[in-house]
Amino acid sequence: KDNNFPPYRIRGGLKGGQCSIECKTSQYLSSLLLACPLAENDSTIDVPLLYEKPYVGITLDWLQFMGISVEANDDWSTFFVPGRQSFHPYTRKIPADFSTATFFLCAGVLAANDIVLTGLDMNDSQPDKKVVDYLRAMGADISIDDAGDIHCKASQLSGIEIDMNDTPDALPMMALTACFAKGETRLVNVPQARIKETDRIMVMCKELSALGADIEELPDGLIIRESQLTGATVDGHHDHRVVMSLAIAGTLIPGETKVLGAEAAAVTFPNFADLLKSLGASLIEM
Question: What is the pTM of this model?
Answer without folding.
Answer: 0.89
